[in-house]
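Researcher: Let's do a round of design. I'm pasting the structure tokens now; please hold your answer until I've finished.
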């Protein structure tokens, strides 16, 4: 799974329908979000398509969220997503570089806010100040109302983001191990005590790597032995089948090919008793 780094998706304050996203909602979304309970999908322009190959298909999943304080002491929601290759490609070409979340203020009747969707867009104004002139409530006057999962849900003003993927761990990789040990043994500007600590960590890293290599080797050896045992059984079965075939071939080779029906059995005189 290619996970992104955490990026800001919402800040307390204005929404697209005149309501305010409260600080407590940010905190509740961070505390309550659980993909196993309800996972928020990434869509385009808050439009949830039904076709898997259309422009409004899903572009990934939100896998984690957290709340952080940002400028002006405001609370913001940060998300980590598992993006599809299409979303990664779009972002690299600077397409759909703003995000807006869909918030359910009382998810499943709990009275607690929950993140139910994340949208990417290229038109932050259409999800922000332009929508404010249409409606001050979540009523039908808002052109975005039809895109909501629930009429009481709201969309936040769009936040610009840059999709950066986390690097996968390379601790068991030779190149990664070499870089780690090299960095640990870089003693420039370090005191003796720190040097000894780094040497110890370098030795520990090498020992852990060697342990992992030995474990992988042992597992591979066990697998190879199992394959050899299965191959031996298959060879033995094949040899037995060949032997049976050769025996049958020899037996058939000794059978007279000129087979004639035996003459009728006769009793006394000229009466035929049987012709089988």
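Researcher: That's everything. Go ahead.
Model: Designed sequence:
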């Amino acid at each position: 799974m290619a996970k992104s780094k955490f990026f800001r998706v919402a800040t307390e304050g204005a929404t697209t329908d005149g309501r305010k996203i409260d600080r407590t909602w940010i905190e509740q979304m961070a505390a309550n979000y659980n993909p196993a309970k309800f996972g928020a999908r990434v869509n385009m322009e808050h439009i949830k398509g039904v076709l898997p190959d259309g422009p409004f298909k899903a572009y990934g999943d939100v896998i984690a969220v957290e709340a952080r304080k940002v400028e002006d002491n405001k609370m913001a929601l940060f998300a980590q997503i598992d993006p599809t290759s299409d979303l990664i490609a779009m972002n690299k070409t600077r397409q759909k570089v703003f995000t807006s979340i869909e918030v359910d203020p009382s998810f499943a009747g709990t009275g607690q806010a929950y993140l139910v969707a994340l949208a990417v867009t290229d038109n932050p104004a259409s999800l922000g100040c332009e929508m404010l002139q249409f409606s001050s409530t979540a009523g039908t006057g808002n052109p975005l109302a039809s895109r909501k999962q629930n009429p009481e849900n709201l969309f936040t003003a769009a936040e610009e983001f840059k999709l950066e993927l986390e690097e996968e761990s390379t601790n068991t990789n030779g190149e990664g191990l070499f870089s780690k040990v090299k960095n640990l043994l870089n003693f420039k500007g370090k005191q003796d005590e720190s040097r000894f600590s780094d040497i110890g960590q370098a030795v520990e890293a090498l020992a852990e790597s060697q342990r992992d290599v030995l474990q992988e080797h042992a597992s591979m050896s066990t697998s190879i032995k199992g394959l050899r045992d299965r191959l031996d059984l298959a060879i033995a079965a094949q040899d037995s089948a060949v032997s049976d075939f050769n025996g049958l071939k020899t037996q058939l080779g000794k059978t007279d090919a000129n087979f004639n029906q035996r003459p009728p059995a006769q009793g006394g005189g000229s009466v035929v008793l049987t012709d089988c």
